[in-house]
Structure formats: structure tokens, C-alpha cells
């Protein structure tokens, strides 16, 4: 019998709708999905956008209960919100917020087999479109990935809401999305496996290529728009890349070394903890490029792009200069563990190769900084 993993797979949510002020114009969009909604959002997001959204829906004839997200995407939180949804006989769970809120709403929808509508309040990662939740303990320790049979049924990305989020969230989303095509290329080369289930489709890789193309062209302008809290065409394009193209691309084209580097960071406690998923993934892209032997001229283009966006890329900027050698070795070991997506690389990667490539990135970026004047669009004091 042929394993289902040996077929090509492509998956996606039913619908993705994006635009300025979509939440306050969504009654017609939402009608087909139900009438009794449970809205999950944290206190700040509820204050900034959730309360108005709830009032709007109520005025338009929907029954909308609200529960405050406790801050962690944990099994306990999924259970708590599931009980509320059951008590209220909700037919739809709406997650409004960042990745953890959205992941919790996916867990609730899966437990009760009800519709899940996802409203990202920032374009900080591609969690919206992916049919899995990352589960943590109540103390923020990573536990596992929960994979579901179904995607969220509808994503509504309100660019007016997203433009008000801190610019660092958009930067992180760019890092997460930027990796998609370069990881997909490695998966295609190795005939590896994707998050969707089996081997990559041409559709998955085409979406991933468009994602990279958009980011090369529009990231600086989008970051500037975010700094000004305004919705421009460039911001619209980058939001679509970060949420939709990156999500479909990651599932349909697959992940390789860059995301394993992110997993490697999870063993480092304390200071390096301060960095976001997409920031670590951006460093992961650089490590992957050095691993595959990217020629210097091409590598410089990536360095110029990522530094101008505002990404940290050196060991110092990631505070890795303060990490002990044994912790660095644990980081490299975790990045290459069995089951990590680094197995999708077209050659076997050892922990030593990770540390050597990290040094290679550090040297190339340091040289580039010394020989070019960089004007980052976004600057954050947490970096280096
Ligand atoms: Zn990611």
C-alpha cells in the first residue's frame, strides 16, 4: 500500500477576505456561518478593536458572547473556552488577536466541531491559515503541535486594525513569510514533505514564490506605513504575503532548515527568549543560505534586504554572544533533531554545520555592515 505521505498535497482555508475596516462591514460575510458567536480576544485587543466589533455584530442581529483570552495557548485554556462555547451553544468561535489567541480558537473549534473564524490583529506570522496550533504550558513552555483535520473556515484580515499594531509585529511577519520560498525550494530539491501532508505541489511553490516576490518589492514601504499607522497599497500587499501567501506556501511547499533554527532557539532561556518567531526564522534563512553555499554576491542581497528592514542578524544582535558554548551546542542539536523540518534539506545537516554556518552568517553580516551604510526602516532597542 502507498502511504498517503507519498502523494502531493495542497490545503487551504475555505475563504480569505482582506481589507480596511472589514470587521465593521462583515455582517454579510458572516451570515452563512451561524448566528451565535463566541469572541475570544485578549484585554488589549478587545479594547482596541473587539468591543466595537462585538457591538457592530450585535446591532446586526448576531448573538455575541465575549471571553477574555488568558494569554497562553495551552490545553487548559482550550478546555476553559470550549466549556464556555458549549454553555452558550455557540455555533462559531471567532479568534481575534495574535497567534496564541488564534491557535486557542482553532483548538476550541476542533473540540466542538464548530466553525472557526480567524481575525488576526497583527500580520506577525502565518498561523491564521495553517491547520495546527502550537501548544504551551501555562508557564510558557513549548509542549507540542496539535494538527487538525480542518483549516479555519474563514480568515478576515482587517488592515485598519493591523496598521495600528506595533511595527515589530509586521517585521516578524515579514521574517516568517520571507523564509517560505527559500525553504520550499529545498523541499522541492529533496522531494521532501510539507505541512499539508505529502510532497509539495507546483501550486504551493508558486504561492511561495509570489510571497518572496511581494516582500522583496514592498517590505520597506509596508514597514513605513506601519510606523505611520496607515493603510497603503504596499501594506495591503505585505499583509497578504505574511498571512495568506506564507501560510499556503508553508503548508503547500514545506519547511526546511530556517524553521528548525527557530525550534533550536526554544532551548535557550532568558535573553534570547525576547525574540519573535519571524526574527529567528529570518536568521534561520541566512543560516540555510550559508549551508547550501550561496555565492557571496547573492548572499549580500539578502543581507542588504534584511538589515534594511531592521532584522537582527549577528550573534551579538541576538544576544548569542552571551550564551555558553554548551547552550549553543544544545541549540544546534535541537535544530537538527529527528523529526525537525531540517530533514527536508537536500543533504544531511549536523549540529556542527549549524554552528559553522552561524559563524559564517555572523562574519558576512559584520563585513557587510563595515563596508556599507545601512539605514534600517525599523529600529528596536532590544536588538544587540
Ligand atoms: Zn513560521
UniProtKB/TrEMBL annotation:
Q: How is the cofactor bound?
A: Binds 1 zinc ion per subunit.
Q: In which pathway does it act?
A: Polyol metabolism; glycerol fermentation; glycerone phosphate from glycerol (oxidative route): step 1/2
State the UniProt keywords alphabetically: Metal-binding, NAD, Oxidoreductase, Zinc
Q: Which Pfam families match?
A: Fe-ADH (PF00465)
The Enzyme Commission number assigned here is 1.1.1.6
Is DNA repair included in the keywords of this UniProt record? Answer: no
- What positions does the domain Alcohol dehydrogenase iron-type/glycerol dehydrogenase GldA occupy? 13-155
Q: Which residues bind glycerol?
A: 126, 176, 259, 277
Q: Which domain of life is it from?
A: Bacteria
User: What Gene3D superfamilies does the record tag this protein with?
Assistant: 3.40.50.1970, Dehydroquinate synthase-like - alpha domain
What cofactor does this protein call for?
Zn(2+)
Question: What GO MF terms are annotated?
Answer: glycerol dehydrogenase (NAD+) activity; metal ion binding
Binding-site residues for NAD(+), renumbered to this chain:
42, 99-103, 132, 136
| Reaction equation(s) it catalyzes | glycerol + NAD(+) = dihydroxyacetone + NADH + H(+)
Tell me yes or no: is NAD among this UniProt entry's keywords. yes
Q: What class of enzyme is it?
A: oxidoreductase
Question: What protein does this entry describe?
Answer: Glycerol dehydrogenase
Per the UniProt entry, what species is this protein from, by scientific name? Liquorilactobacillus oeni DSM 19972
Amino acid at each position: 500500500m502507498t502511504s498517503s505521505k507519498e502523494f502531493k498535497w495542497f490545503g487551504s482555508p475555505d475563504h480569505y477576505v482582506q481589507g480596511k475596516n472589514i470587521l465593521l462591514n462583515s455582517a454579510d460575510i458572516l451570515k452563512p456561518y451561524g448566528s451565535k458567536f463566541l469572541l475570544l480576544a485578549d484585554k488589549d485587543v478587545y479594547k482596541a478593536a473587539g468591543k466595537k466589533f462585538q457591538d457592530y455584530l450585535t446591532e446586526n442581529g448576531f448573538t455575541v458572547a465575549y471571553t477574555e483570552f488568558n494569554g497562553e495557548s495551552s490545553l487548559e485554556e482550550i478546555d476553559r473556552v470550549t466549556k464556555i462555547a458549549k454553555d452558550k451553544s455557540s455555533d462559531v468561535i471567532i479568534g481575534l488577536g495574535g497567534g496564541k489567541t488564534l491557535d486557542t480558537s482553532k483548538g476550541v473549534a476542533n473540540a466542538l466541531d464548530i466553525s472557526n473564524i480567524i481575525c488576526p490583529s497583527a500580520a506577525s506570522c502565518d498561523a491564521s491559515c495553517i491547520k495546527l496550533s502550537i501548544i504551551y504550558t501555562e508557564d510558557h513552555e513549548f509542549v507540542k503541535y496539535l494538527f487538525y483535520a480542518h483549516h479555519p473556515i474563514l480568515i478576515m484580515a482587517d488592515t485598519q486594525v493591523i496598521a495600528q499594531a506595533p511595527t515589530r509585529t509586521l517585521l516578524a511577519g515579514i521574517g516568517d513569510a520571507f523564509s517560505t520560498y527559500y525553504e520550499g525550494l529545498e523541499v522541492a530539491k529533496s522531494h521532501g514533505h510539507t505541512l499539508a501532508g505529502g510532497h509539495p505541489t507546483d501550486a504551493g511553490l508558486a504561492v511561495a514564490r509570489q510571497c518572496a516576490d511581494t516582500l522583496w518589492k514592498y517590505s520597506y514601504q509596508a514597514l513605513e506605513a506601519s510606523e505611520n499607522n496607515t493603510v497603503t497599497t504596499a501594506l495591503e500587499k505585505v499583509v497578504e504575503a505574511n498571512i495568506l501567501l506564507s501560510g499556503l506556501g508553508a503548508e503547500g511547499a514545506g519547511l526546511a532548515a530556517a524553521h528548525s533554527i527557530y525550534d533550536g532557539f526554544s532551548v535557550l532561556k532568558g535573553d534570547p527568549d525576547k525574540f519573535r518567531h519571524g526574527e529567528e526564522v529570518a536568521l534561520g534563512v541566512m543560516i540555510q543560505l550559508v549551508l547550501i553555499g550561496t555565492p557571496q554576491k547573492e548572499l549580500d542581497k539578502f543581507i542588504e534586504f534584511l538589515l534594511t528592514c531592521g532584522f537582527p542578524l549577528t550573534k551579538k544582535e541576538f544576544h548569542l554572544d552571551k550564551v555558553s558554548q554548551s547552550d549553543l551546542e544544545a541549540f544546534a542539536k535541537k535544530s537538527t533533531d529527528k523529526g525537525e523540518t531540517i530533514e527536508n534539506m537536500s543533504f544531511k545537516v549536523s549540529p556542527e554545520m549549524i554552528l559553522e554556518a552561524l559563524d559564517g552568517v555572523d562574519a558576512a553580516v559584520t563585513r557587510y555592515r563595515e563596508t556599507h551604510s545601512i539605514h534600517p526602516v525599523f529600529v528596536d532597542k532590544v536588538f544587540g
